[in-house]
Amino acid sequence: MSHNSFGHLFRITTWGESHGPAIGCVIDGCPPGINITPEEIQSFLDKRRPGQSRHTTQRREPDQVKILSGVFEDEYTDGLRTTGTPISLLIDNVDQRSKDYSNIKESFRPGHADYTYTKKYGLRDYRGGGRSSARETAMRVAAGAIARKVIPGLKITGALVQIGEHKINRDNWDDEQINQNDFFCPDADAANEWATILDKVRKDGSSLGAVIELTATGVPLGLGAPVYGKLDQDLASGLMSINAVKAVEIGAGFDAAALSGEQNADEIRAGDKGPDFLSNNAGGILGGISTGQPVIARFAVKPTSSIRTPRKTINRDGSETEVSTKGRHDPCVGIRAVPVGEAMMALVLADHYLRHRGQVGS
Amino acid sequence: MSHNSFGHLFRITTWGESHGPAIGCVIDGCPPGINITPEEIQSFLDKRRPGQSRHTTQRREPDQVKILSGVFEDEYTDGLRTTGTPISLLIDNVDQRSKDYSNIKESFRPGHADYTYTKKYGLRDYRGGGRSSARETAMRVAAGAIARKVIPGLKITGALVQIGEHKINRDNWDDEQINQNDFFCPDADAANEWATILDKVRKDGSSLGAVIELTATGVPLGLGAPVYGKLDQDLASGLMSINAVKAVEIGAGFDAAALSGEQNADEIRAGDKGPDFLSNNAGGILGGISTGQPVIARFAVKPTSSIRTPRKTINRDGSETEVSTKGRHDPCVGIRAVPVGEAMMALVLADHYLRHRGQVGS
Amino acid sequence: MSHNSFGHLFRITTWGESHGPAIGCVIDGCPPGINITPEEIQSFLDKRRPGQSRHTTQRREPDQVKILSGVFEDEYTDGLRTTGTPISLLIDNVDQRSKDYSNIKESFRPGHADYTYTKKYGLRDYRGGGRSSARETAMRVAAGAIARKVIPGLKITGALVQIGEHKINRDNWDDEQINQNDFFCPDADAANEWATILDKVRKDGSSLGAVIELTATGVPLGLGAPVYGKLDQDLASGLMSINAVKAVEIGAGFDAAALSGEQNADEIRAGDKGPDFLSNNAGGILGGISTGQPVIARFAVKPTSSIRTPRKTINRDGSETEVSTKGRHDPCVGIRAVPVGEAMMALVLADHYLRHRGQVGS
Amino acid sequence: MSHNSFGHLFRITTWGESHGPAIGCVIDGCPPGINITPEEIQSFLDKRRPGQSRHTTQRREPDQVKILSGVFEDEYTDGLRTTGTPISLLIDNVDQRSKDYSNIKESFRPGHADYTYTKKYGLRDYRGGGRSSARETAMRVAAGAIARKVIPGLKITGALVQIGEHKINRDNWDDEQINQNDFFCPDADAANEWATILDKVRKDGSSLGAVIELTATGVPLGLGAPVYGKLDQDLASGLMSINAVKAVEIGAGFDAAALSGEQNADEIRAGDKGPDFLSNNAGGILGGISTGQPVIARFAVKPTSSIRTPRKTINRDGSETEVSTKGRHDPCVGIRAVPVGEAMMALVLADHYLRHRGQVGS
After folding, report:
1. CA A1/CA D319 separation, integer angstroms
2. Confidence of residue B78 (pLDDT cuts 50, 70, 90)
3. Above 60 in pLDDT, residue C98?
4. Subunits close to C (at least 3 CB pairs below 8 A)
5. For helices C231-240 and C337-360, angle between their N-to-C axes, nearest 10 degrees
6. Model pTM score
7. How crowded is the C-beta side of C96, counted as CA atoms within 13 Å?
8. Biggest alpha carbon distance in chain A?
9. Under an 8 A CB cutoff, do B358 and D362 touch?
């Protein structure tokens, strides 16, 4: 069962509410002997951290991670290493403003989890969303930083390819650009355009959705399993588990529906270093198992429902009202979802790497 | 771990290769006391059964299901009932033609699992795809027929909404039409058009992709869980685990990326029988938990790679060759994916119904 | 969840009632490439099969196993091999006499699962115990025959060391004897004595308990895990899951409570081929992880409650009555528990072998 | 998979080394709405806390538990309540003396996990045992304090019934005594005798084993499941997972082997409030399912291998040496195992209560 855990052999369990004292994560099953430093984890957290640009929420959270267990430094090894025991990561919540929650305490925000949580559990921590807050995703990013190191040679890159209706021009794709703008955008022109658009959206108190594309290179051939252990199935599960995600696709995705069998099948030639695929509509996965090509996934993030425009809703007592969200919110939660998506892909791949090794050897 | 199992409390484990003596399924965790007849299961299997129209494979499989355990008929109960013990279902493989597999035995079909399976496991049953054959999905449909009965009042309807580039006209949607054409198509005009298109595709030995839409009504409020037990996450996992599926979306799905927060948030009014949602962009799921509205999911099926047109590929020894598939194949595997998608949705919902009851009571 | 499954990476799921059409098992996660024949599996089943001597039940079951999936024979491999896909095993129930169950249908047999099953599920298959029948253990033995082959060089030997109050003389222990009497008894004198005792017990319609000892050699160092993945924990789970087992111990077991720390700690010397332990009170497991010494476990089987002597009980309607069991029953179910115990040990070891390989490599 | 997790629906994951900054636990799946205070948890921790009497280790650990998530206090509920989200518990390690570990860093203590851990993982935190330290059990006790509240009316009582060779006199059993001596001993005379014996053992730098008996009353009929979800199976797993435990038995346990079927079967009469069992050899469990009678389990704890007497062993380089343990250790770890055993029983029962409710309803 996995209400708050993800993965099987490389398995994370997260805990913590956005307005409690801290949030945290336990990683179980990490192989021993992996070098890992708090600085490495921090570098990924900083990509997701709020307040990095004017386009994300202004909540001030240093998101300083502590490693409480599972690593050890001794003279027999060079530096800090995983020991094979559970790795406990913790981030203190610093900026939990004791602000006025009265409007969202009594009223359900439309499009928000408030309604379903309250009805399911009978009570909820109304200060900031509790477990429904995207703050939980900080722990995914921290755990993902370790997961990335499980498969030697693995590289995962996320990029924002659409904000609202505005898609990048794929002819402009430049990996170098991704970390040089506020949007993880591979298209410099689009990034400029998006800055203007988002400024207006922020000023209007509105929000926009987005699409993120993930690419993993260095994925060994053979990860995944035939039926209910498909690599793409677990990617879909991992990405759909991210807050506000409403869609996931692999390779050609929905566009594959419009292709003919001739167009869609990736032909193979004998390359110098093994098979050469002439295309990658499969997104690096055939029959649920990795082909050795880049693994490619995309996911859509809806516009956040935390907007300033008043919306019709009901109160806890069932009476009608209107609600608008004041607080500090991201005009486009899709931006900070980029490192989160990368982390989920890393977690899925690390897990399947160990699962494959368990059954088949190496 | 779940290489061949799906679900947690309502859990299925399937087995069997397309050209072995039989395929089967074990359902574990089914509540006791549910009335179930072989005829009911058969009625769903018949919807998926090959050879139902000229638009699906002509393999002749009666797909007659046997219930080997987990049900009991005695004088104290009215008819056949589940006993709470594992339900074993079995279908004999009848039409395993001893045909010539030599072309696919030595060559990997592009876009097919042949390559990854052989590389992962070192050997495979090359007769018809082994576990990668969509024949496995018959057991999903059989298990789904039982899963449907776990939640009282639940109704699940699947419909084909796109074949190749050809989408239905949503203004023509008529639920009555769905079972009156060969395509589970709610738009009678589209169904006529598709018949012509598919006749040509079949004659050409080509194939087309498709998009299926699933709607569940009668889903109780509160199914799902906040973080890694999201209802939409498990729907994504279940639907992406179906053969040839490359994309999954919930509610507005990818289109949500292009909406503003105002457009996307489903406003609420106080209805006579509880909250009335003014729209359903959420697809019946907020924060991973069902709202009580209809749950709506869509998934895309790629065109099958089993086509008559020769495609470039390599042999087991790495040398270059071309391959084309002769056998009996579906020109559009998306058609028979409709009842399979319904079954996966039923399995996910039944599982979450029991999970919710376990944690929260009722 | 594991109501009818056991193990994680090497995982079995069993199904079937004693008086249904068949019983079966699905093995998931078996490594590919293991040579396996029906004859090998059958040889273990024959050890457990009823009617092998006058000391076991006279139910006539050939217990002929069929392999329905997961193995393949082709020219590229030498003989029948596992393919890495689920292995489905099935045994038809042949000797389900349509006898009179009226006495056990209405009355709960004291010491038997009838009462708890009926109360838990609200209904049960009263013909012979349903899932509570030890017939289920045939599938454990069949699966265990495959599990034994996962760890190269592994050998598992079970022996009956006590029947009723009558223990073997450990000075007489001779492995050669174990398969030369009707009791898997390593002490020829004890076996003779037991034959006389059991003849009387059978004639009296009574029953006796027993203690079984299991020894595994060739277990690699390092199987198991620190806290909740202890090898001894999973052995305890596996052995306690066998019908009628009421106690499990590892190494010195309960006797360890009476030892001093000096007596109990197994001292180590530097041997030619690695560490030499001077004793094995640990039973080959320290801190939940195998030491490389023989793994030793014992378990106690209670006397069956299916006896001819009338016992006080109640009917389904709560009224008082007496009940005695007529059918064909084992006077000492502990005898046939020997191959079952071996199988459970094999399943636990195979699972932990794959789990270790997954996390640590090899 | 469960290397550091226990349970399915009520599931704990523990982390932390004995000499790291802290230890902790995440409880997932707890029902919402349970009243819980830090003081309640603390009261159970205090029973296990070191330094409570001269008979336990003198390590000074306040073991002050912090609740970091999963509970909420608001005006709509009366006091602190579980919210249904993960409950994170943390205890800072205070008394991690920077003592000299050189003797146990280089040499493996016989009978201790040092050897197997180092060999399995290739490295280990040698300061105090890492994850093999019984300090981990503090988190079991903390989690158990919450688990106890899941089943209304449940009461669990542990008692020490044997130290070394010295058993209690069962005729002297008095529940009132259990919390009035340093041993959780129900026999006042035995407690006095044990005090003298342990004083000598402690002075000698030796250690003794022990046997603990657990009794749960108020266990509803119907918890557990037929085959691999047996209640006794999971009790065996849970108790065997406690450090130094070598044996587990249910009800009559090993003694059942020596009984006849007539003696062992617990006869039933029609009582005023449902069935009256005339004995409880079953220990409250038949066919893996609770009968409604008290659930009774016993487990044996070996004498700790941390003794002052030098024992033969080898160094990390394989050379021969002798080792003795200096530090602060319990002469009888069985004493503090009493609250740990209670906690494991509570965890198993809470889990099965939710599992039963999930499948069967209520």
Report:
1. 46
2. low
3. no
4. A, B, D
5. 150
6. 0.97
7. 18
8. 70
9. no
C85 contacts B4? CB cut-off 8 A: yes
Residues with Cβ within 8 Å of residue C75, at least 6 apart in sequence? none
Cα-to-chain-centroid distance, residue A151: 19
Among C97-101, C139-143, D61-65, name the one with the lowest average pLDDT. Answer: C97-101
Inter-chain CB proximity B21 and C68 less than 8 Å: yes
- Separation between Cα atoms, residue C107 and residue C317, nearest integer Å: 9
pLDDT higher than threshold 60 for residue C77: yes
| Alpha-helical regions (H) of chain B | 38-48, 102-106, 114-121, 137-147, 188-204, 231-240, 261-264, 333-360
Which chain C residues touch D4 with a CB distance below 8 Å? 225-229
Q: Given its phi and psi angles, is residue A70 left (phi above 0), alpha (psi -120 to 50 degrees) or beta?
A: left
d(CA B25, CA D359): 19
Could you tell me the pLDDT band of residue D138, with boundaries at 50, 70 and 90?
Answer: very high
Give the minimum alpha-carbon distance from B32 to chain D in angstroms, rounded to a whole number: 7
With an 8 Å Cβ cutoff, are C269 and D239 in contact? Answer: no
Each residue's pLDDT tens digit, C274-283: 899 999 999 9
**B98 pLDDT higher than 70:** no
Contact D4 A85 (CB under 8 A): yes
List all residues 6 or more positions away from B137 whose beta carbon is below 8 Å from its beta carbon.
B48, B242, B243, B336, B337, B340, B343
Whether the Cβ atoms of residue C88 and residue B15 lie closer than 8 Å to each other:
yes
For residue A231 the two structure tokens come to 């690599």
What's the DSSP call for residue A217? Answer: E
Size of interface B-D (CB pairs under 8 A): 46
Are A130 and A105 in contact by the 8 Å Cβ rule? The answer is no
* CA–CA separation, C320 and C311 (whole Å): 11
Cα end-to-end distance, chain C, whole Å: 28
D192, pLDDT greater than 70: yes
Query: Are residues B162 and B58 in contact, defined by beta-carbon separation less than 8 angstroms?
Result: no
Q: Which residues of chain A have pLDDT under 50?
A: none
CB C299 within 8 A of CB D240: no
| Contact assignment for C206 to D260 by CB distance below 8 Å | yes
pLDDT value of position C103: 67
With CA atoms as reference, the chain D residue closest to B10 would be D359
SS3 A151: coil
- CB neighbours of A271 closer than 8 A, spacing ≥ 6? none
Closest by CA position to D145, among listed D5, D346, D7, D294? D346
Q: Which of C354, C356, C362 to mutate to test the interface with A (most CBs of A within 10 A)?
A: C354
In eight-state DSSP terms, residue C159 is: E
The answer to whether D226 contacts C113, with C-beta atoms less than 8 Å apart, is: yes
Is residue C319 classed exposed, middle or buried when 0-12, 13-18 and 19+ CB atoms within 10 A define those classes? exposed
Structure tokens at C130: 């349903």
ipTM of the complex as predicted: 0.96
B288 to chain D nearest CA, in Å?
A: 14
Q: If you search the block for the tokens 């851990």, which residue do you land on? A: D117
Q: What is the pLDDT of residue D2?
A: 80
Q: Give the DSSP H or E segment for D66.
A: strand D65-67
What residues have CB less than 8 Å from A243, skipping those under 6 apart? A132, A133, A134, A136, A137, A333, A337, B287
Bin C337: left if φ > 0, else alpha if -120 < ψ < 50, else beta.
alpha
Give D274-302 pLDDT, tens digit per residue: 899 999 999 999 999 999 999 999 999 99
Helix or strand or coil: residue B55?
coil
Picking from D29, D355, D357, the nearest residue to B361 by CB comes out as: D357
Q: Locate the chain A residue with the closest alpha carbon to B330.
A: A261
Tokens matching residue D350: 């809470």
Interface test with D, best of B352, B354, B355, B356 (most D CBs within 10 A): B354
The residues facing C297 across adjacent strands are C214, C250
